[in-house]
Fold this protein.
Amino acid sequence: MAFKGAYLAGVIFHLLLVLTVSCRATFFVLSKGHTIFPSKLDSSWREAESVTTAVLGQDLPKSNPLRQGLSAYLNAAGIEAGYGFFAPHVPGTYKLVFELHYHDGRIEYETPKVKTGSAGLHLVILLDFIGQVEDSVVREGLIKFLVYATWREHRDVSMIRAVFGTVDFPPPGEFERGRRESYQVLYAYDVTFEPKPVPIHQP
Amino acid sequence: MQTIWKRVTDFFFPIQSDEWLTVLRIGLAIQVLLYCLAIRSDWNYLLAGTGRGLISRDLSEVALSGESSFIPRLGWLVNIGSRFGISEALILNAAWFCLVCAACFLVIGLFSRTAATSTWFFHLCAVKSGGLLAYGMDNFTTIGLFYLMLSPLPDQFSVDYRFRKVTLRNPQLQGLFRRVLQVHLCIAYFFGGLAKCTGPGWLNGNSLWRAFTNTPFNVIDPEILV
């Protein structure tokens, strides 16, 4: 009886956390609009989301041991995020293209490179994340990390222009009529590099 | 009151065989092995610190520290290694090797509990340190490994039971962990479906089309789909 009670308490606590996190994620999705619900409800969803956030201790100061402990548990159990993948709609695909400008005027085009298909999938997730970042400074910073990774492979470039955009695939009806995917530029960032110093050989 | 308690305990503590645990153990171990092998060539590139990889591992770990300082991460291992003069690249390679070894032990069920805990730890470190690159599959693997680590190992098809003669645990605990996993998956699928129901695109088929035609999920030619 006692062993069952202890296990049950732990299980109920765990499942309540799963439920709360799932509710929070759903309220977040609903509060962003573009759903079947009227937009006047958006603020109510936001309030509901803030209630669930408070239940999860995320309103507490960052140094609070309860918040730290709860966050650690959620992450360790893999239950820190909800399950609203592709909800309420499937986002567009983002694409990042680098325009490599060389000192001699040459221009080459390149995309972020990884060796394996699996890492390619992770890269797509990163681009999706960048596309959804609302803070322009954070977005620029993340793209510059990728620019820097490309620059390490091409140290003789004078400037790299990072062009971040979205690939729009037409709906089925338009696809049947012959329309194909199109690329729409969202942001572009120029990063210039100092020319490499020429070593002086002394006799 | 006693009737309610009995119903609750009957629901959460059914007497079950441990076959499901064998499937979970072997399935997750194979999943982790495939994950490791698929990402081997890019492992260091994706998880290296600032200035050495695709995107900084340090950046993900700073964001992680904002959530909690107690979440496992590769930075802990790199810091310990640096005290002994071991390079970051070597530590990252060692973490990959440890993850593969732990998954190999898990697949045959040798030192099952230690193997499950090690697999969970190294996988979680990799996923959390590559936070900006993680996606749903990584999350579900973490969930599975977390349950596996706590579940009543070993199972009757493991090397631990067959050759090391480690005794099996209470069958009611088998039932409990299986039930929790079932309820968790029900919640996940319920909320996954609920969130999609609210999107007009999922009701008229547009989202399904986009899910099939968007990169990198466009494995079927759209011409066939139309």
Observations:
- The mean pLDDT of chain B is 93.
